[in-house]
Predict the 3D structure of the following.
Amino acid sequence: MKRPRKSRIYTKVGDKGKTFLFGGKRVSKDTQRVVAYGTLDELNASLGLAASAIKDKHTTNIIQKIQGALFDIGAELANPQQNVKYTNRFVKLDQSKITELERIIDQVDSRLKPISSFILPGGTEGSSRLHFSRSIARRAERQLTKLSRKESVNPNTITYLNRLSDLLFVLARNQNRQENIQDTPWKKD
């Protein structure tokens, strides 16, 4: 049996600051669309880092599902023309993904003590990494919002990122709860 040929990691296509969207349109790497899906890539990597510090399989499974959804959103963003040739390769994010996040938020939040002030990000390593991912999710949401003012963007993607940051907040708090670490309330100086 013939082994598949391994492709090179480097293509040299982006050496001059340009990249291709699905369908072949060449754009600058600093266009808002590329910045937005680049931020999603950063968020996805930070979630992988967070998962590596979390022992709870239920939480790591949630994170892996989110990572898959982030790839779907990135594929949507890389295909602004919604070219049918490319849209069959991924699933367009719909309301059901948002509803699923809300269900998980409610489930996890029901285990947490109510808070009456802002809390400082931190606690366990897993919690700290989830808080870091939450801040990247907020930035990704801002990047998509900015893009949506000039170009067509699936509105479910912006809503998804908004819910995702809420989910990452409660997952971070839950990591502290699981390891008997108290959240640290913010105290005004």
About this structure: Helices lie at 32-52, 57-77, 84-87, 95-109, 125-148, 155-178. Residues 24-179 form a domain with the Hypothetical Protein Ta1238; Chain: A; fold (CATH 1.20.1200.10). The chain has a mean pLDDT of 87.
